[in-house]
Specification:
Helix content is 27%, strand content 20%. It is of the alpha+beta class.
Length: 189
């Protein structure tokens, strides 16, 4: 990609054509749980404040989410993509998973979100099943709320139903959100 430095996180384009190097790795990764949401994985520190605000708003709307997957190194994506190839074959894997270097997860600003394992009394805990295990996670309370509101907090769904995969390069993934910052996300929205 033309913008392949970690400081270019908001404008780095990675898709089936453009990629970042195998050495691209943010130096400011922190646990995603610092935002208060249940989950696993790390994200860039620059997104924590907006992720925390988004999580609190979703929780108040009774549509909490959990972080299922976040930053993936190049080497981790090697394994992830190979697993998809074994499971579905190369052609289908290329619609469902990025080749190493082509994943937004490597930027440290993208996450796969899901529903929490438990939600009661206004509190959420644990990480539920993978969002890809639902008929359409985008129709859950969390998925619907995020689709309608994530842009207010700087996040956008990377692979929406409209335009996927023709315009996005990947199949519809209502759980995959990338951070652009509030100003840029509002303009894109």
């Amino acid at each position: 990609t033309k913008y392949g430095h970690t400081g270019d996180w908001y404008r780095s384009l990675v898709d089936t054509i453009y990629r970042v190097s195998s050495h691209y790795a943010p130096t400011d990764l922190v646990p995603a749980t610092r935002a208060g949401a249940p989950g696993t994985g790390s994200v860039r520190a620059i997104i924590i404040d907006d992720l925390k605000a988004m999580y609190r708003a979703a929780l108040a709307a009774r549509a909490p989410f959990a972080v299922k997957s976040a930053y993936r190194s190049y080497n981790n994506q090697v394994g992830t993509f190979a697993g998809w190839v074994r499971k579905a074959g190369l052609r289908r894997a290329e619609l469902a998973s990025a080749r190493p270097g082509h994943s937004e997860h490597q930027l440290g600003t993208s996450m796969d979100l899901t529903s929490p394992l438990h939600f009661s009394g206004g509190r959420a805990s644990g990480v539920g099943k993978g969002p890809w295990e639902y008929a359409d996670w985008g129709t859950t309370a969390a998925g619907t709320w995020l689709r309608n509101n994530s842009w207010k907090y700087g996040f956008l769904m990377s692979y929406p139903k409209v335009g996927s995969p023709q315009k996005t390069c990947y199949k519809y993934e209502p759980w995959h959100f990338r951070y652009f910052g509030r100003g840029l996300a509002a303009k894109i929205h």
